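re the bet — no i am not wrong, look at it urself. input seq straight from the record:
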Amino acid sequence: MKSAEWGSYEDAPRLVTDVPGPESLKMLADQDRYETASRTYTSVFKIGVSRARGSTIEDVDGNRFIDFFSGVSVINLGHGFPPVRNAIRDQLDRVVHINEMPTETRMNFLKAFNSTLPAGLKDRSKTMFTVTGAEACETAIELARHVTGRKTIVAFSGSYHGVSGEIISATSNPHYRGYAGIGLRDIAYIPYPYAYRFPFHVKKEDMSAYVGDMLRHMISDPYAGPGEIGGVIVEPIQGEGGYVVPPDDFLPAIREITQEHDVPLILDEVQSGVGRSGKIWASEYTKVSPDIMCVSKSIGEGIPISMIAYRNEYDEKLPPGFHLGTYRGNPLGMAAGNATLNYLRDSSVLQNVRSNGSHILKRLEEFAQDNSYIGEVRGRGYMIAMEMVDDPATKKPGTRRAARIKEYMFRHGVLMHTCGHYSNVLRFMAPLTIEPDLADRGIDILGDALKEVQ
């Protein structure tokens, strides 16, 4: 969608000062004075933001940046997208906050959300509102434990499901648990089928079966160790773990095993959902329907809102007040979500994401042919990753190399972030509406960064 009233700044990237500029430095100094030192993003993107349009951001010094960041896949339709902005403005004139009581906006959202759900949940599920992605995932495992009466949840290495409350135990990076002073709590881990770094010597085509056998053993053998399994939580495409796309037979294998043993399957679509993969839900690629699905991030296009959808029969086992929270189901977020889902469903944007994503993937693969420090290029839709290594033979992670590329791009007007087990994976997560020429402009700068670092 491009119009005279909306779209990216056409001259981006535009740098009129050194980055960060003097006004940004002043603003950052004030932030340091008043706000916690535990921030992370301002250690990477050292700018004070003035405004944003489409897939571009302008700082307080007048510098303009191409946004390959999207607030970590939150602004999927771009900054200030007119249908979303108009829906929020209209909702401001109606009601900003109300607790659970039905409104026209709430009912419209629930119907739109239901219409997009995987086949096994569409017209066969209930929605429970939460506020953040972490809360949605935590509520999902609470629900699974409640309906099964079993405590242990199976998660996967490389997983990220949030860093607050009980769900922190299902996020695989142990330093988050260390920060919170929380140990593993009834969570058992098995490997995700991450072909480039799979820890066992099996063929790529056998990875899904191998992981499936591990899960089946864990569920069916009472002496396996973790105890009775109450649920399995998995990302259809791993996000913070490195934008890892599993083999197409992985989710179907996990679905078959969980159905066989009556174990709830929880799909975390917080980052992979709402169009990021080129489908509304990443699980659509394999036609797998979960028992519980977690949704957040870009469903509210910047307004904090999240939810789970779950099988109707689970609802019969829930007491009043099973999950409480004052800010659940924010009307502004639902208005934004309704506009977002309607646009994804009725426009050609997802087709464009798949087509343009293939083009970007091909460009990165061409970079890899000339740069041995690119270990692997992978992705689907606008979840595209480039994993950097220091030694292609040993696959030694190129953590510092990725950081230098990210810094080069920032100083040349592109915001691009990293992820992965070793923070060595550069990820493309631009808004789904980014103009193709602007995306190519940013990828050109990535190519320059690779040459500089090599």
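see?? The chain has 13 helices and 16 strands. told u. also The longest strand covers residues 383-391. so pay up
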